[in-house]
Every structure is written in C-alpha cells, then in structure tokens.
Amino acid sequence: MRTSRQVVPAPTGSLMVAAVCALGLAVVALPAFSFDGTTSPSTASLTPGDGMRGPSAATAESGDKAKAFTALQYAADQGHIAAQWKVGHMYAIGDGVPRDDQRAFVYFSQIANTHPDEPPGTARAHIVANAFVALGHYYLTGIPNSTIAADTSRAREMFAYAASYFGDADAQYQLGRLYLEGTPSDPHQAARWFQLAATKGDCRAEADLGDLLFQGQKVPRQAARGLMWLTLSKDCAGPEEAWVKPLYDSAFRRASDDERAMALVYLEGWLKGRRD
Prior knowledge:
Residues 4-60 have low confidence and may be disordered. The relative contact order is 0.12. Helix 4 runs antiparallel to helix 5 (152-164), helix 7 crosses helix 8 (203-215) and helix 8 runs parallel beside helix 10. This protein has helices at 65-77, 81-93, 101-114, 123-141, 152-164, 169-181, 187-198, 203-215, 223-234, 244-254, 257-275, and strands at residues 19-22, 27-30. 55% of the residues lie in helices and 3% in strands. It has a two-stranded antiparallel sheet with strand order 1-2. It is elongated and about 60 Å long. The two termini are 36 Å apart. The protein has 276 residues and is mainly alpha-helical. The protein has one domain (19-39, 100-275): Tetratricopeptide repeat domain (Serine Threonine Protein Phosphatase 5, Tetratricopeptide repeat), CATH 1.25.40. A hairpin with a 4-residue loop joins strand 1 and strand 2.
C-alpha cells in the first residue's frame, strides 16, 4: 500500500500494565495486556557493524547522542526497518535532533511503502503498523510549510490499513475516533473498532466503548456492559488518560445496584476468559 501520492519530506503507547478492577464490590487482578502499538521499538543502540545488536559505546545511553544518531541514520539508509522507525521517531519528537516533521514523515513513509505486507504478529509488523499510525496522525493535521496537507480521508486509509491488516489496537482506536467524530458520525462503526481495540487492552478504547454503551445515546444502551469497560479502563489509565476516571465516576454514580452487580458478573467472566 502506497502511503503518499508523491515523494515528499515527512507518533504511539505501551504494554498495558496489570490492572486492578473494582466495582465497589470486589477487587480482581488483571494480567498484563498486549502491545497496543504505541511503545517505541527497542532500537536505541545501533551501529553500522552490529545492526540490531545491543548497546555499544556509541549509543544515546552512553551519552554520545551524536554518534548514536549517525549510526542509526546509517542503518536506516541501509534499509534497517527498526532504525528507520527510530530516526523517524527522533525527528517527530525532537529527541537529540531538531524536530522535523517532514523528515519524520519520510522515514515513516519508507517503512510503510516498503513493508506493507509484513506478516502480522511479528516484531517488524508492530513497527510497520506504528509507522502507518504515525502517518495517519500527520494526515489528520497536515505538516505546516510542506506539501502534506490535512486530509482526513487519507488519515482514515492509514489507520484502516494498520487496524485491518495488522490488527493494531492503536490504529483501531484512532479509526474508531474518526468514525465517532466524523461528519457524518457513525457511532456503530466507532463502537466496532473500539471493541476490537478494547479486547486487546487499549485503555482509551475501553473508556470510549464503555461510555458509548453506558450512555446509550448513539448506540443501544447496555449500562452494565458499559460500566464493565469503564471499570477496566479506570484501572489501567495512566497520567495521559486523566479523562477516564471522571467518565467512570459519573457512570458508577448513575448506575443502579442491579447494573453494578451485572457489571461485576461481566467483569469476572471477561477476566476469566483472559486467564483461560
């Protein structure tokens, strides 16, 4: 799949931590969730000679960022996918180099254009999916002073490819947000993609799915199931998901005793399924 219509100069989370789920009735430990497409690949230490091997003297960890970046860029120019991702990420956030979204776009495009058929489920596939998601974000906003203009349709293509082919949870969540916030909005499609991401442990998807189901304003109301997803989300939310707890608190206050009890039943069944 080609990611850009022309050659032009050119971001995403973590393994979900173990969660503790409470409905005012019980506390249940939840195992670590799977990769959600937003953790940066462990490729900080690369040299032309050792490719993907572990840290060397010329790494950012040893304080020599200039040499580390030179080594990474060399590996990236030789087609090493992890190095391409790392260099693109460094440009995207300004890590050790001046931030340059156009350069970042180029590196992410190289990955997506060269490896779109990477077998899903591999470490390389995670990197490719991550590149598609990064490109999707760039197309959502555009890159100032470049030929990359905001293009929601193109962003949707990037997210949809990573969501469908690679089954990437972050892409599935981003696609759900586009369906929810688009014009016209399609909350049923949004709920579908949130569900796929939520079952992989994406905290944001759990929250948005739970809110949709509990509110029942855009999809048929399923208050107990919505409260279950909100509970899971509350207990895995980090500092960047501070918006999750107010959603849970509001739903918990409004839920009836029967809805809370049924949410616990759903929660216990869901946790059992994860353990099995």
